[in-house]
Amino acid sequence: MILLADGGSTKVDWCLVDHGVLKKRVFTKGANPFFRTTEDISSEINHALIPELKENKIEAVYFYGAGCAFPEKNEIVRAAIAENIDVNLIEVESDLFGTAVGLCGDKPGIVCILGTGSNSCFYDGKKIVENVSPLGFILGDEGSGAVLGRLFIGACLKNQFKPEIKEAFLKYINLTAPQIMDKVYKQPMPNRFLASVCPFIKENIQDEAVHNLVNNAFEDFFRKNVMQYDYKNYKVSFAGSVAYHFQDVLLEVASRLHIEVGEIVQSPMDGLIKFYSA
């Protein structure tokens, strides 16, 4: 029995797997060690995950998470898991590596994540050999939910959309402009707040100005990230809620830039289960 985890900044998808068979699936809050402490993550695991695992004997935990690309950050997550699960093997790797394994297995390809944050790499079938640093939602994370939210809210409050779009959005978010600014500049995890705007953006994607905003954000992602890899010889595959729910626009931009897209999945978990079953 093994426990696999695909951890984004917004949520963690935990899957209890026995010889390739999914026994239990549990979702908890995001566990990005750049935004959460060992104590915080440990408490979340204890209250939201452990009661769902019951008496199952777990032999190994494989955690692939956002922010888990540095030893000191990985230790934050590993320690939180170790405090709650008595197991000999705990491996913590980046969500990007987990996505590469889940989408490509042992085949090479360009792999991207478009969720709350964004990331990309060239995977040679065994390891990540090239990675353009995502830089986070302030300096980078092009095409991510947080950046889409940041761009949309900024444009909305600066009256760049039809009045009815702005009116509908303020009703949807149920916050005043000063309250929105407080959420972004003073409250914890502003990236998660910004990404929470994406369902509204999706609902209004037929509006030309909204569509153009998403289109331009995806083109920015392709040009600043994907096009630094050998995209002319390898397909580009995607995982993440933004890639999945906005895939029509994503494919439109890729086609315009002559980039061949492979898979687009909401989660790489099915591929990870298959990989570890083998």
Describe the structure in your own words.
With 278 residues, this protein is α/β, with parallel strands linked by helices. It is built from 13 helices and 10 strands. It has helices at 38-53, 71-82, 95-104, 136-139, 145-157, 163-173, 177-185, 190-195, 198-203, 208-224, 241-245, 247-256, 269-277; strands at residues 2-7, 11-18, 21-29, 60-65, 89-94, 109-114, 118-123, 128-130, 236-239, 261-265. The protein has a 5-stranded mixed β-sheet, sandwiched between helices. Strands 8-7-6-9-10 form a 5-stranded mixed β-sheet, with helices on both faces. The radius of gyration is 19 Å and the shape is globular. It starts with a strand and ends with a helix. This is ATPase BadF/BadG/BcrA/BcrD type domain-containing protein.
Number of helices: 13
Write down the overall mean pLDDT: 92
Give the biggest sheet.
Answer: 5 strands, mixed
Given the C-alpha coordinates, what overall shape results? globular
Strand content: 15-25%
- The largest sheet has its strands arranged as 3-2-1-4-5
- The N- and C-terminal alpha carbons lie at a distance of 14 Å
The portion of residues assigned to helices is 40-55%
Q: Architecture of the domain at 2-100 and 269-277, CATH level 2?
A: 2-Layer Sandwich
Organism: bioreactor metagenome
Protein name: ATPase BadF/BadG/BcrA/BcrD type domain-containing protein
